[in-house]
Amino acid sequence: MQLRNIVLSITALGLVGVASTASADTWRFGLEETEGSVQYGYAEEFKKLIEEKSDGDITVELLPYGKWGSSYSALYDAIQSGAIPLGFGSGFLGGTVPESQLMSLNFVMPNDQLETAEILNSDDFLKSDAWQDSFRERGLVPLATLPEGYQVWTANKEVRTPEDMDNLQIRVMDNSLLRSTYEAYGASPITIAYGELYSALQQGQAEGNIQPVFAHENMGFYEVQDYMIFADQSQFIANFIGNEEWYDDLSDDQREMLESTLDEMVQKGHDIQTQFNSERLETIKEKSDINIVHLDENERDAFRKLAEPVRQTYVDMVGERGQKALDIVLDHVNQSGDKAE
Asked: Which pLDDT belongs to residue 209?
């Protein structure tokens, strides 16, 4: 009986550590991607800054894909419960926060990728009632946004027109808006777990794929596809989110430290993704004979016209908050004078 009580006490202590309250020394940070990814590079720099600014009082524990499990919904559930108070959420987050699918809209963000990062991390957007309420209603807080580079198509045939994409079984994240977008392009979108995607492409269960360059290289997807197509239709964008209760319980000093770090990470995150994607593209070119295709403006316009009605699909899906958030982004893009993607 004494041994059982000791075991129960140890287990309880462990669960307290996992819950990670605001006063705890360890901030657990769940990533959707593996080591060697943009998210991991961002998280390493975030960890360095927080630990330096806190004089070592806070340790940031990085939990890349696989360390917390392999189902993205499990990661989001852990953030909502506070078991992992910090994490990234991208396309799959739409099942938890439908409004977050804004980041999946094609031909909305500016061509300048740094400008995209600045708009999405601006107080006008990030701290707007529409965006904050969308997450807080689900026990989450949007802390920052990380654009990870342009989404690039791969396939075993050249794709330059919507006709080329007709009935193409292209893998998309489990996100209803992405499915609507690629159905508008004429494709037949399918969802396959990230960890199973390589074999699915290899065996022909999926005919195409959508990822930023670094992911194509990191996961070796380019090895089992013949064409890599740059349409510059959208950037892959991750939301950096926190547990609402954890965030609200931070001290003023902790919150100020977090905010100043996130401000620094806008430029650092852009630099990380730029370097990763540039270097990884060179690696792909060196290691394979995959055909690289860049669509011209006329070819992109054909896809743009099909994508524009999906904006209304998004608003119909999520309602007034989504419309307000989208309007903020479009207003900033129009003010900048930079043509949307």
From this structure: 96
Low-confidence ranges of the chain (pLDDT < 70): 1-24, 337-341
Residue 148 corresponds to which tokens in the numbers above?
């990870």
- DSSP letter for each residue of 130-150: HHHHHHHTTTEEEEEEEEEEE
CA dist., res. 255 & res. 20, Å (int): 16
Tokens linked to 126? 């990030």
What angle (nearest 5°) sits at the alpha carbon of residue 5, between those of residues 4 and 8? 85
Residue pair 79/242 in contact by the 8 Å Cβ criterion: yes
Contact (CB, 8 A) for 33 and 75: no
| Cβ atoms of 84 and 68 closer than 8 Å | yes
Which residue, 66, 29, 33, 31, is CA-closest to 211? 33
Tens-place pLDDT, residues 124-134: 999 999 999 99
Going by C-beta distance under 8 Å and a sequence separation of 6 or more, which residues neighbour residue 91? 101, 103, 104, 172, 173, 174, 175, 178
Total number of residues shown for the chain: 341
Map tokens 């949007």 to a residue: 142
42 three-class SS: helix
Question: Could you give the dihedral angle defined by the CA atoms of residues 291, 297, 300 and 305, in that order, rounded to the nearest 10 degrees?
Answer: -170
Distance CA 64, CA 265 (A): 19
The residue with tokens 């031909």 is 107
d(CA 187, CA 182): 5
Angle made by CA atoms 58, 250, 243, in degrees to the nearest 5: 95
Question: Cβ(38)–Cβ(62) under 8 Å?
Answer: no
Phi, psi angle pair for 114, to nearest 5°? -65, -40
